Amino acid sequence: MLTRLPFLCCLLIAAVFCAALPDSAVAEETAKPKRLLLIGQGPDNHKPTTHEYMAGMQVVAHLLQNVDGLQTIITKADEPWAEGPELLDGADGVVLFVSQGAKWLSQNPERLAAFERLAQRGGGFSVLHWGMGTREAADIAPFVNLFGGCHGGPDRKYKFLTTTMSVADGQHPITRGLETLELEEEFYYQLKFPKPPAKITPLIKARIEDQDETVSWAWQRPNGGRSFGFSGLHFHDNWKQDTYRRLFKQGILWTLKYPIPEKGTDVAVEASVLELKPRK
């Protein structure tokens, strides 16, 4: 027994020493669930069945509910959204689906600062439709620095049409399992992106006025974080498309650095999840 004491003491000392190493803190942090903030709003001035922000976030929450180690938190970010900075400081990623999201981001300095802190931590950023929008050019740059693409300024382009939507980069993890689709949509296009040397990866193109226009992108940000956007989903009914649900689910997972299966993710949801309730 006495001969074993030095060995046991060494083990004890080693255990105490390892517990103090930075790697142990990293391992503990990695074991925690990732927190994804789903940011929606109440109705804007668009008619029912369009710009259904909160209903859209409910669909996203259902799509992600079985992802291991991921906690989704839905928040209704109508002004003044006083709890916003605190929620952002506790998040690992965000999904933004609000009215004039680029304007909304910049109109509150504390809100913008919280988004910037999340970016500095390598957080994931995903944005959908009018969530990337602003009518004012001054709001474009802060938004592009975080999300990568913006539908902004007086020269912004948008069009209602029935068109073909196809994969632009079949090698990217986000586009796994996606198919060419023909449907009715309002797409924003000729979006504002970061200037070179920043490199945006086009994921989805839509045929608009005889041109293939980028309507979805991925961006590996210089700080190590990731951003993803899709300018479609004006119409809530388009959530019924498997390709739409898969694109958005995989885009979010990519920003959070989750692996994506080679054949794409499961995007089955109950029909009731996609049904709209009458607006109050």
SSE topology:
Blueprint (H helix, E strand, L loop, with lengths): L4 H15 L2 H10 L2 E7 L12 H12 L5 E7 L7 H6 L3 E4 L4 H6 L2 H12 L3 E5 L4 E2 L5 H8 L3 E2 L4 E11 L13 E9 L10 E9 L2 E10 L5 E5 L11 H14 L15 H4 L6
Parallel strand pairs: 1-2, 1-3, 3-4, 4-11, 5-6
Antiparallel strand pairs: 7-8, 7-9, 9-10, 10-11
Largest sheet: 9 strands, mixed
Gross morphology: globular
Average pLDDT works out at: 91
Order of helices and strands: HHEHEHEHHEEHEEEEEEHH
Characteristic key phrases:
280 residues; alpha/beta; nine-stranded mixed sheet; globular; disordered N terminus
Describe what you observe in this structure.
- This protein is of the alpha/beta class.
- The chain has nine helices and eleven strands.
- The protein has helices spanning 5-19, 22-31, 53-64, 84-89, 101-106, 109-120, 140-147, 242-255, 271-274, and strands spanning 34-40, 70-76, 93-96, 124-128, 133-134, 151-152, 157-167, 181-189, 200-208, 211-220, 226-230.
- A nine-stranded mixed beta sheet has the order 2-1-3-4-11-10-9-7-8, covered by helices on one side. A two-stranded parallel sheet has the order 5-6.
- A hairpin with a 2-residue loop joins β9 (200-208) and β10.
- The termini are far apart.
Quick summary of this structure?
This protein has 280 residues and is α/β, with parallel strands linked by helices.
